[in-house]
Amino acid sequence: MSRASGYRAQADLARRLAEITVQPNLERELRHVAEELDHLANEIASDDPDFLRSEVLEPRDWFAR
Questions:
Q1: Residue 59 lies in a domain
Q2: Which pTM was predicted?
Q3: Which residues, 6 or more positions from 51, have their beta carbon under 8 angstroms from its beta carbon?
Q4: What is the distance in angstroms between the CA of the first residue and the CA of the last residue of the chain?
Q5: Is residue 58 a part of any domain in this protein?
Q6: For 2-51, what is each residue's pLDDT tens digit?
Q7: What does the chain look like in DSSP terms, one character per residue?
Q8: 17 assigned to some structural domain
Q9: Helices 3-20 and 24-46, interaxial angle, to 10°?
């Protein structure tokens, strides 16, 4: 799995969790996380040189305990 697709998978998970939560604040935060992860995935996929020089961590499981 590429780095970009890993971020997209995490964004999809955040969106699915946002859909099933009953807490409005949590839903809003999960949707925000999904947007940020999508943005990272798009930046990685675009091979933007400025982005590639920045300190980006490897994809991680944002929802792991």
A1: no
A2: 0.71
A3: 43, 44
A4: 22
A5: no
A6: 788 999 999 999 999 999 999 999 999 999 999 999 998 988 888 765 55
A7: --HHHHHHHHHHHHHHHHHH---HHHHHHHHHHHHHHHHHHHHHHHT-HHHHHS--PPP--TT--
A8: yes
A9: 160
